[in-house]
Each structure stands twice: as C-alpha cells, then as structure tokens.
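Lecture 7, part B: from sequences to assemblies.

Below are the input chains for today's worked example.
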Amino acid sequence: METTEEGISDWRKKIDALDEQLVQLINQRAGAALAIGALKHQGQLPVYEPKREQAVFEHVRRVNQGPLPDHEIQHIFERIMDVMRSLQRRDQ
Amino acid sequence: METTEEGISDWRKKIDALDEQLVQLINQRAGAALAIGALKHQGQLPVYEPKREQAVFEHVRRVNQGPLPDHEIQHIFERIMDVMRSLQRRDQ
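Predicted structure of the full complex, as structure tokens:
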C-alpha cells in the first residue's frame, strides 16, 4: 500500500508535468502579446485596453469548469495580464 | 493587405484558444492540489510547505525558454500557488 508521502510525491510529478505545459502556453501567449504590442506601436494605439482585459476575464470565467471557482481563475489571469502588459511596454 | 485591426483580431483569437487550454491545465493542477491537500489532511501534515514552493519556482524557471523572463514566469506562478493554497485550505 502506498504511503502518504508516496502519494504526495506521485501527485507532485503530475503537477511538475502540468507546470511545464503551463510555462510553454504562457510563453506562447506572451509571443502573441508581443505581436499585438508591435501592431499597436505601429498603429499608435494604446497598450492598455480595459475593454479587452474585461473580455479576457469574461471569457476565462465562461469556459471555466472548475474545481477552481471563477473568481480564482480571474485572480490568476489578472496576474497574467499584468505580466503581459509590462512585457508589451518593455518591448517598445 | 491586412489592416492593423485585423492583425490584432487574429492574434486575439489565438490568445483566446491559448486561454482555454490554460484554464483547463490550471484546473487539472487544482485537482492535483486538492488530492495532495486531502492526503496532507489525512496525514496531519501542514498545507504550507515553503520548500516545495521554492522547488516549484526553481522548476518553472529552469524549463522557461522565454520570451517571458524567468522572474515574470515566477511572478505568475506565485499567484497560482496562492490560489492553490487557498483552495486546499477551503477544502478541509
């Protein structure tokens, strides 16, 4: 029978694999944000667009099927959006 | 030729698709965190383990290939870990 420690260790291996996928997807998202930043810069459009940020939050809440509640999903995406915005600014 | 607005709109569709994958993976991670939380509760182990959190940050920095710098990846995972910890606490 598996001990508590072995059980935790097995779940952590699964988490590590998920984290590797998350890092990749977040970086793909950052690449897309940089492309948008370049287009905005070229078109002299503002980096910060509150309406788009709201649309992103509504979208992730809508597709969320848990176990995380919608507000916690949004909480994570608020940080993601902060990071993307600072990346776009730094790239100008 | 594509206008700036069309270009931005295309990238946003790609971002929306990435966000749907991110929501799914984050929830899979939450499911694993809940399983660990239950094992910890059963074994009377503490929810907060600073060493494990440090190992998660080191891992995501190590596998990061950009364009996001390591500290921004960690910044996002700090929020993810906050959310996971509050989920584990709420589940007791």
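Note for the exam: Chain B touches chain A through 53 residues (CB under 8 Å). Keep this in mind when comparing with the next example.
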